[in-house]
Amino acid sequence: MDEMIRKRLHWHSRRGMWELDLLLLPFLEQRFDALSEQDKALYVELLAEEDQDLFVWLMKRDPCGNEDYQRLIDMVIANAEYGERDQFKGL
């Protein structure tokens, strides 16, 4: 992946809400490269959503209503629950 695109994705994955940063940044670093091209594009679309909506969906307070988004949201949550634990070092 182009380094400029990677930096842009990293920047957009940083949200200003600590809870979202703890979910999105590790997912980007640990799982994004293994996604299909379609799911990579979907992740970029998901990042365009409002922080408040992302928070509600990623904290499992409400389903998002978009099946494709929900599938990706479930991947992000699963990565947080079962992914590498060293993702929290330095936070």
Which key features would you list for this structure?
91 residues; mainly alpha; 66% helix
Give the biggest sheet: none
Work out the number of β strands.
0
Count every helix, treating DSSP H or I runs of 4 or more residues as helices.
5
Question: What would you call the structural class?
Answer: mainly alpha
Q: Note the run of SSEs as H and E.
A: HHHHH
Q: Stretches where pLDDT falls below 50 for ≥5 residues?
A: 87-91
- Average of the residue pLDDT scores: 90
Bin the strand percentage. under 5%
Proportion in helices: 55-70%
From the alpha carbons, calculate the radius of gyration and give it in angstroms: 12 Å
Distance between the termini: 26 Å
Q: How would you sum up the global shape? A: globular
Structure characterization notes:
With 91 residues, the protein is mostly helical. It has helices spanning 3-13, 18-31, 37-47, 51-58, 67-82. Helix 2 packs across helix 5. The longest helix is centred in the last third of the chain and has 16 residues, at 67-82. It starts with a helix and ends in a 9-residue tail after the last helix.
List the helices and strands and how they pair.
Elements: H1 3-13, H2 18-31, H3 37-47, H4 51-58, H5 67-82
Helix pairs in contact: 2-5
What is the compact description of this entry?
The chain is an all-alpha fold.
